[in-house]
Amino acid sequence: MPNRGSALTADELLIGSLLLHHLQLLQFNAHEVGEYVMMEPGQFKQSRSIYIGVAVYPTVSFFNHSCEGGVSRCFVGDTLVVHSVQHLAPGDHIFENYGPVYSHKPLRDRQHWLSSRYWFGCKCVACVEDWPDYDQFDHTKVSIKCQGCGSGITNEASGKNANGDCSSCGKKNNAVELFRQLRTAQELYQSAMHMMDGGEPRKALRLFYRFIEQCRELVVRPNRDLSLCQEAARMCLASLGSLHCIKSKK
Fold it and tell me: Model-level pTM greater than 0.90?
């Protein structure tokens, strides 16, 4: 070790800078390494991800945070696999989630957690628009997307359709037809959930992605069914990676 006040050698500066760099990565850019645990193969009830370690994945560290999150992370061994769970157009930003999700944690708690852990104030759309969590969500209404400007046209989910005139751009939308398409899309989602409950995650994923794609054209976020669909898709994707079943089927 050099004496106090002596100059560091080039090698010492290099090693010191690498140590500092990786310590900073552990604070802000490390990812948990985990596996998915089920009671029995194909049984998603009581299934969960468990973490068995921490590692630095430099490429994934480039993803910024959103309290909605647009990707699913799962593992095949120590390989981190990232899947999108939302529609992406060329040039779109890809966001992951650093921990707090808008549907489960209110704005104030998310902001406090992100500020204390990652030193930034979140400006994602869920925070800027203060999206409600599941407990606050109004289940009696749904917003369809104006086919002109993309603004929301809110109606009662019971099917009492208004004329569909957009208050933002004035376009006359066929609200009856748009809600019919949404109900058809929701049938896809329900079918996918039945497939998932039946232990068929690959088949369920195909329908989940079809529902996500149709929601892009039909609904304005936040949409409870869309969020639940994305959560279910993440569970299916996780089950296709590293998986541990407590009770194996004979």
Answer: no
